């Protein structure tokens, strides 16, 4: 009897253990499934939110393209716009499906190429027949009529484009060359009233620039720089430099002082340590302020309009304004085409610098 009771007790304990093990396995599987669905729901919510936010941002650019490549009849531009939106929405949905269902990166890449080729094929068959290059005639025909202007023709777009590149590039070079050594001094050198200098920079950036227009006009006149790209470039550099210094200083503060001291201990001079050790650590910051400075110079209109008088020194912002001056009704197709040309250099700059703007270099300390 005792042996039978002992056997039943052992069997009962084993049964309860198996039941607990099975229940634990079921609980873990249920929790894993719940966690997976929670993650899927969170990612779906993020994608939905970003999609809804992107729609009002992307749509104006598609509309700009639709107007610039269609005739001025009022109907074709809307048809092209809705067809572009349809193709973009379908391609976006397919790309999301590929990202969700593809098991390997190689398969996902192949499917993305197929989606892109399919979108191009649909675009060529459904949208391309309604497109025209008539609105871009100002690129090869300098005698494009603009009835609202006294001269009757637009100035050369290539002159305006070259002036804009010269102006934005020179402004970027000046801001970068002045901001980098200034930030190094503010970050590394312990001089008196350093905090006061930083506060003064913020105060200078807080002034409304429109209040300085008359004073700057008179100052450039007495300096002989009125109606000169270099004069406007100096004005823009003075206004943009406080912001660039304030932003760039954080990058220098993030570089460990021990790295620079290790280079100096190994025999490098202060300038060599700055050039060979510190500068590579702040490359992302230099590219960031250079990009912002270029964009600021490229989009400038107020000071260019006020301080440049000769149409031969016209920039693209003034060219866009010039193209819109039509007393008989603005040519929306021509204005949209000029806007597309105006956007292209900025888009190219972003594509070239985006990977540098989103990464930070991490240095090591020599042991």
TrEMBL record:
It is a multi-pass membrane protein. It holds the Pfam family BPD_transp_1. GO terms for molecular function: ABC-type maltose transporter activity. Keywords: Cell inner membrane, Cell membrane, Membrane, Sugar transport, Transmembrane, Transmembrane helix, Transport. GO terms for biological process: maltodextrin transmembrane transport. The chain crosses the membrane at residues 40-68, 80-99, 111-128, 157-180, 201-222, 228-252, 273-295, 334-352. Residues 161-353 form the ABC transmembrane type-1 domain. InterPro entries: BP-dep_ABC_trans_perm (IPR050901), MetI-like (IPR000515), MetI-like_sf (IPR035906). It is found in: Cell inner membrane; Cell membrane. GO terms for cellular component: plasma membrane. Belongs to the binding-protein-dependent transport system permease family. MalFG subfamily. Part of the ABC transporter complex MalEFGK involved in maltose/maltodextrin import. Probably responsible for the translocation of the substrate across the membrane. This is Maltose/maltodextrin transport system permease protein MalG. It comes from Dickeya dadantii (strain 3937).
């Amino acid at each position: 009897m005792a042996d039978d009771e002992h056997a039943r007790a052992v069997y009962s304990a084993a049964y309860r253990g198996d039941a607990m093990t099975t229940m634990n396995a079921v609980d873990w599987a249920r929790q894993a499934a719940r966690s997976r669905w929670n993650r899927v729901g969170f990612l779906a919510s993020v994608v939905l939110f970003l999609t809804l936010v992107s729609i009002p941002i992307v749509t104006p650019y598609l509309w700009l393209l639709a107007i610039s490549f269609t005739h001025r009849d009022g109907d074709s531009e809307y048809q092209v716009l809705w067809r572009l939106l349809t193709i973009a929405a379908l391609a976006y949905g397919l790309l999301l499906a590929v990202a969700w269902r593809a098991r390997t990166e190689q398969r996902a890449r192949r499917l993305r190429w197929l989606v892109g080729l399919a979108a191009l094929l649909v675009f060529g068959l459904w949208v391309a027949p309604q497109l025209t290059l008539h609105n871009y005639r100002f690129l090869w025909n300098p005698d494009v009529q603009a009835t609202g202007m006294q001269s009757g023709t637009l100035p050369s777009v290539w002159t305006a484009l070259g002036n804009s590149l010269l102006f934005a590039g020179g402004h970027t070079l000046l801001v970068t060359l002045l901001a980098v050594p200034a930030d190094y001094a503010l970050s590394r050198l312990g001089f008196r009233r350093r905090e006061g200098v930083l506060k003064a920079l913020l105060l200078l950036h807080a002034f409304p620039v429109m209040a300085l227009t008359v004073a700057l006009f008179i100052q450039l006149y007495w300096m002989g720089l009125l109606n000169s790209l270099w004069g406007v470039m100096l004005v823009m550099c003075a206004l943009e430099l406080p912001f660039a210094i304030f932003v760039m200083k954080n990058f220098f503060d993030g570089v460990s002082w021990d790295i620079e001291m290790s280079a100096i201990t190994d025999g490098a001079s202060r300038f060599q340590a700055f050039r060979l050790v510190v500068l590579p650590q702040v490359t992302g910051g230099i590219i960031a302020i250079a990009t912002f400075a270029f964009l600021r110079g490229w989009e400038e209109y107020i000071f260019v309009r006020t301080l440049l008088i000769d149409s031969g020194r016209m920039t693209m912002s003034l060219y866009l304004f010039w193209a819109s001056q039509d007393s008989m009704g603005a040519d929306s197709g021509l204005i949209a085409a000029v806007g597309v040309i105006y956007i292209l250099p900025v888009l190219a700059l972003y594509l070239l610098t985006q990977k540098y703007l989103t990464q930070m270099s991490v240095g090591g300390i020599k042991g």
